Amino acid sequence: MNHSKTYNAMEVKHKNGNVIIEGPIPGSELANYEFHKDLVAFRPPEQQHKALIEIADLPEGRIIIVRDMNEIVGYATFLYPDPLERWSQGNMKNLIELGAIEVAPKFRGGGVGKALLEVSMMDDAMEDFIVITTEYYWHWDLKGTKLNVWEYRKVMEKMMNAGGLEYYATDDPEISSHPANCLMAKIGKRVDQESVQQFDSLRFMNRYMY
């Protein structure tokens, strides 16, 4: 599998200060940056910072960051799906997951999330992959954004669309457990038909269970 990683960057003018969106960033470089204290969506900031450093050094792992001077204020992670998830069951070498995406509240809005996805997809190697993301409403910052689940889902979809990800139906029980949850994916230009069929069979694993 083509695990080459080509660095790309983009500057975004934000009302709270211009930020650089760049990546994939190696673990050694990530370790030198500070990590914003408000990046708490998945685990405490220092633990999440450590997790990003570990992911960055995996062969398929990619970390794209939003950087304010010497501080990471947002990030997106790409890696193979969790072994406990159905998406890993096919053991597909060309299926990776947008595992987490988070931007500190101060830098939300103003196109930062969209730019994160755009920079992620600038690398030509991404055309060799099926990129998926599973969106669960319980990870969303409904309180902080004051949006309801449907408004947030709309914002999320729009952001994912910027990276070429589209909605895909699935019978995955966790996704099906709430109508706002969803699976989104982007099938790279060089992905073969056999892999697409394998992905389809992972999406619908319960179709013969009556």
Automatic annotation (TrEMBL):
Pfam families: Acetyltransf_1
Listed PROSITE patterns: GNAT
Domain N-acetyltransferase: residue ranges: 19-189
Protein name as it appears in the record: GNAT family N-acetyltransferase
